[in-house]
């Protein structure tokens, strides 16, 4: 047994928004979640978990946030068969609506390619953007929870309240337990 907590939450954050959300999630799923800032720790600990949440912001017109970029190859070399992962992304639909949440889409693709099972897509209703590479094939959902602290900060907690129980269910866990 390498870690008592059942869910590893891996994130990186340039200006703090993704980190703030990671902390909100850790508060809500207190006894279940262990936080891992990949800028500090890298991604080796991903091997310890079969259940993970990952948080990634999009930067620079559809690009990966820099710490995720640095760890990309190290993730690509891992085997995620049998692992379940829920994603959340940070983006700005008003400011960067042509590339909204693209990095979350890239991460979804990478994890799928190494065998992960991705869980809990999130409906596109309630957002306004031009294009996103983080959509499901039918374009009715994002591949994970899309958060926008720049333009929709006021609904972040509400979105988490709806999304987290679905994540726990997809992970076969009791929230708060
Ligand atoms: C220079 C710059 C480029 C950005 N590019 C994008 C983008 O292409 N797509 C997007 O959805 N958001 C974009 N954003 C918005 C960030 O993803 C958003 O502010 C996010 O909350 C930052 O998360 P962090 O504080 O965890 O780094 C950009 C922000 C800045 C300042």
Give the tags.
177 residues; alpha/beta; Rossmann fold; 9 strands; 31% helix; globular; binds flavin mononucleotide
Would you kindly provide a written description of the structure presented here, covering whatever features stand out?
- The protein has 177 residues and is an alpha/beta fold.
- The chain has one domain (7-170): Rossmann fold.
- Helix content is 31%, strand content 21%.
- It has helices at residues 17-28, 38-41, 66-76, 102-113, 156-170; strands spanning 7-11, 33-37, 51-59, 63-64, 84-90, 117-119, 122-123, 141-142, 145-147.
- The strands form two sheets. Strands 1, 2, 3, 4, 5, 6 and 9 form a seven-stranded mixed beta sheet that branches. It has a two-stranded antiparallel sheet with strand order 7-8.
- β1, α1 (17-28) and β2 form a beta-alpha-beta unit.
- α1 (17-28) crosses α5 (156-170).
- The chain is globular, with a radius of gyration of 15 Å.
- The two termini are 19 Å apart.
- The model has no long low-confidence stretch (mean pLDDT 96).
- Flavin mononucleotide (FMN) is lined by residues 13-18, 57-62, 65, 90-92, 96, 99-102, 149-150.
